[in-house]
Amino acid sequence: MTHPAPIDSEAFPLTHWSAVFAAGKEGTARAEAALAEFCSAYWYPLYAFARRKGHQPADAQDLTQGFFAYLIQAQLVAKANPEKGRFRSFLLGCFINFTAADKERARTLKRGGGHLVVPLKSQQAEARLAQEPSPDASPERLYDRHWALAVIEVALAHLEAEFKKSGRTALFQQLQPFLQGDASGPSYAEVAQQLGTTEGTIKVTVHRLRQRYRDLLRTVVSQTVNSPIEVDAELAHLMAALRG
Fold first, then answer.
1. What is the CA radius of gyration of the chain?
2. Residue 225 to residues 15, 51, 84, 104, 142: CA-CA distances in angstroms?
3. Relative to the CA of 95, which of 9, 48, 56, 211 has its CA 20 to 30 Å away?
4. Phi and psi dihedrals of 168, rounded to 5?
């Protein structure tokens, strides 16, 4: 079994079960910051779910923002049991129950009834939905697909933060297309010329970059499951969701 690689908590705050769980129980500044970061990273899958369920953009925004405020106000996370499942499933189940309740409560919470309101970029969200490659996917499949994309975005953010901390932001920007498999991106030789190094050096650097990215991806996934032995299964599920 491969253990997830550690993440530099100074470069990027931790956002795993323990921190989110602590936010519900303790309300410490660090725990709440972790929960706020988690909500900011994972609001879009819930928004997409609400939209695919038939809610109009304004209602989906109210429900999503209201849900995260409710998550804090009702100390909902403190009632969660990590041993009963993955955070992905827990969050969706809670959201379904929330949306089945009074919509007015969601609007009240969005307007400030709860002390955490996640800023939603609704125009960007709608643009993403318009480009969705699986327009007939069920709300649940759409949620899983965008959860997978959110996990990838978080892992990339961790990786970029590590490069930024070491003063190598420009290098990361040059090499990031190799992580994404961008066929239209520059070649190893072109990047080597731009950076004043050899093609062999770039190949080695990209190899290490990909390995670190895979390690961080496993770490991010491990933050949403109960134990390391569940990481591989969750990764397989998320990759299948992307292919679907």
1. 19
2. 12, 26, 10, 33, 20
3. 9
4. -120, 35
CA 27-30-35 angle, 5° bins: 70
- Letter string b/e over residues 121-157, b meaning 16 or more CB atoms within 10 A of that residue's CB: eeeebeeebeeeeeeebebebbbbbbbbbbbbebbbb
What is the SS3 assignment for 135?
A: coil
Q: What is the pLDDT of residue 12?
A: 40
Q: In the structure encoding, which two tokens stand for residue 71, read together? A: 């998550």
The count of other CB atoms within 10 Å of the CB of residue 105 is 18
Query: Considering the chain, what is the average pLDDT of its residues?
Result: 80
Write the burial class of residue 59 (CB in 10 Å: 0-12 exposed, 13-18 middle, 19+ buried): middle
Cα within 13 Å of Cα(241), Cβ side:
23
**Whole-angstrom Cα distance, residue 129 to residue 54?**
13
CA dihedral (40, 48, 121, 66) positive or negative: negative
Are 22 and 77 a contacting pair, CB within 8 Å?
no
Cα–Cα nearest to 13, from 22, 25, 3? 22
Q: Where are the domains of the chain?
A: 13-118, 137-244
DSSP states of 7-42 as a string?
A: --TTTS---SHHHHHHHHHT--HHHHHHHHHHHHHH
CA distance 19 to 223: 9
User: CA 178, CA 210: separation in Å to the nearest integer?
Assistant: 8
Q: Which of 18-22, 55-59, 146-150 has the lowest mean pLDDT?
A: 18-22
